[in-house]
Amino acid sequence: MPAQAIRVIQLFVSFDGTMNTISTRLLLVLLSQNNTRPGFNGYRSGRINQIAKFSSSAPNDFECHRIFPPFDRELHEFYRNNFSPQRNKRVVPSLPRDSNAHDAIYVLTKQSCDSQKKDIVVALRLTRSNVDKEYTFLRSLCCAKEHRRQGLGLHLVRASLQSYDSTCCYYCFASSDLVGFYQEAGFVRIPPNVIKDTMSNYTPAPKWLLQYFKSMADRWNQRGKSLELFLHYPVQKFPTHIVLLQHCSEVSKSTATGWLVDDNLYHDSIGYVWPSVVPLGPRVHVHRWVWSGRNDNVMIEKKIQDLASNFRLFLLWTGGSRNEEETQRNSEEQTESVYIILDGTWQEAQKMFRKVPLLWNLPRISFSDIPSSKYTLRRDYTGWRERFSTRSDGGGDLLCTSEVMATLLGERGDVIGANEIRCRLDVFQMNYPLIQEQRQKSKHKHGNDLHGNDSKET
Fold first, then answer.
1. Diameter of the chain by CA atoms?
2. Where are the alpha helices (DSSP H) in 202-261?
3. pLDDT classification of 19: cutoffs 50, 70, 90
4. 104: which residues sit within 8 A by CB, 6+ positions away?
5. Residue 52 has pLDDT above 50, yes or no
6. What is the pTM of this model?
7. Which spans in 205-310 are helix H?
């Protein structure tokens, strides 16, 4: 310890023989300026022996537990002493009164220094929604004052979400100064304009949740405070791998939609109009192979053979059948699937299928339930809708590239990712004239491909 810090300690001890709370706080400020140990930085108050011991503790010293009612006095005292930001206000949030699967209390505990008792350091409550069982409310998150700013709340949030239900969507309301904390925990902040506007039919959260948040936010605004909505989407066990076998004429078309799944391109081209809520990078991996004629068949066939050694290959094409048993087995095994989509007009797609013989031998799949297409950027000047459609609704079953990818994600169980793609398509079409100039700038930055390359293997 530096000599200056030692002299400070001697001065405090010799002054009255003890170290009261005020002197401890001042001493910590002086120590943080002379000691580079990370454990001493960021503390606000507390006794010096507790702080020193905790600063050298490893995360393994703490244990996560789920506790059940009836709760003892310790949990109520923990909330009473730490929950309210006002020092003279002692508040205990509502706690479940009986044990049920829809309500859970998780705590992070640490062995007490002077007894065998385990002290509660962090606590939170998870409540499953009565309206939609796929959504769970994260509430009453509280950390002991002397243990804050040490990542313990983050540790409990991550552990409890994984333990309670890793497949559901979590939401919470918090003040704007906690944006960094929840984003580090894996939550996504929903921008205010996304909540207020109705630009797309596909919202990042159900309407009942948005209405609930708006009512809570209005109360906070009346008190001069701002409230934020955070969502934590479940992570797919296996991302969806897609190869766009793209006709060369599709590359330069401004009405193409395959690029909408690229987070970087979308952010630079449309993000200023409607920010992306759900990052698609972890959910769908899309790569492009450009086909300009029979001369590219050798290259395409080599790529397909290389993929076949590590992945299950499926061609998304008419006349296929959806093998549900195969899909379920694939979700349990290590081998993942790659879906090949022919990207171009319907005439160009048929031409590629006819002239690349290796595609004929790939197992085909088709959608069990094709939603009506919302794509309107390409007119039916040549009557292609009537020629290629199998329905009587004017070609409603003829999906554009982004709609095909959204439907594929939906059938694989990733409804959140599917809705995000459809939302991006809605925004792109509604703002098409304004976006073209911005998209040209983005092309110069990232290149002309989904990932900035002319061709990329999965």
1. 95
2. 207-222
3. very low
4. 66, 125, 126, 127, 160, 164
5. no
6. 0.64
7. 207-222, 263-269, 297-308
